[in-house]
């Protein structure tokens, strides 16, 4: 009797708010759940490497003290640099954007601001946006296969989106300066 | 009249350049910007600067290449060069140090710490 072919299990990595993850693993799936947060998926089809970030807010307010890991402007940079460090080329990058919903009517439209920032960022950096599913008032779950660039995005119950407040994870060595 | 400290920031991210420009110019610095190491080298052939702040991962010429080129010449051999990067590996930090970088700052940057570092290394 022929045995069934061995199929390695999928390794699912949850991309939490304030994180960026990159992988070329064929069995790796990057997943996240979004409310007003936005996740960017970047993929280099030639190098077959991909990555995802998950940010809470777009940019710090004018005159703010600085940028931390809650802000898209930092997490976009982090994701792009991680992609380049893993062999991707910036001109080959293809982007997907998800999230940016406004879950609660009457509250500040943070999701709309996040979505606008993400689109503008990609345009400024000349990165091609191939697909987006943003806005509305429903939470989304995103599953991204970084080695193939395949994405599945579906709406889920809003109670599953835990991303509406900054995470309590301490900032690690934010802006630390070491003079040689 | 006191001469303003002139800083060249080198970063391929337009958004990061905008943030740096805001943080440094509102602190009284004269800011020039380049979008990669090659552009920085070309600019530095014609212009004087007090401090260079450079990213590492950039197209054409990365931050390591820029440091190497500046330290290998005569004109900018002693120019303070601060590396501002998302890289956190000790291997890359040590490489920058060995190549002659003046300091290493990990993004996300804190504007007050960045300004303090620039003031400290500016001649």
UniProtKB/TrEMBL annotation, chain A:
GO MF annotation: an example: protein-glutamine glutaminase activity
Transcription regulation found in the keyword field: no
EC annotation from Swiss-Prot or TrEMBL: 3.5.1.44
CDD domains: CheD
Annotated catalysed reactions: L-glutaminyl-[protein] + H2O = L-glutamyl-[protein] + NH4(+)
Pfam families, sorted: CheD (PF03975)
Keyword vocabulary terms for this entry: Chemotaxis, Hydrolase
Keyword Lyase: no
UniProt enzyme class: hydrolase
GO terms (BP aspect): chemotaxis
Record PANTHER family: CHEMORECEPTOR GLUTAMINE DEAMIDASE CHED 1-RELATED (PTHR35147:SF3), CHEMORECEPTOR GLUTAMINE DEAMIDASE CHED-RELATED (PTHR35147)
Function comment: Probably deamidates glutamine residues to glutamate on methyl-accepting chemotaxis receptors (MCPs), playing an important role in chemotaxis.
Family: Belongs to the CheD family.
Entry protein name: Probable chemoreceptor glutamine deamidase CheD
Organism for this UniProt entry: Novosphingobium flavum
TrEMBL record, chain B:
Pfam families found in the cross-reference section: Response_reg (PF00072)
GO biological process: phosphorelay signal transduction system
SUPFAM superfamilies in the record: CheY-like
Domain Response regulatory as annotated: residue spans: 6-122
Keywords, in A-Z order: Phosphoprotein
Record-listed 4-aspartylphosphate modification sites: 55
Matches recorded under PROSITE patterns: RESPONSE_REGULATORY
Signal sequence bounds: none
This protein's name: Response regulator
Organism, scientific name: Novosphingobium flavum
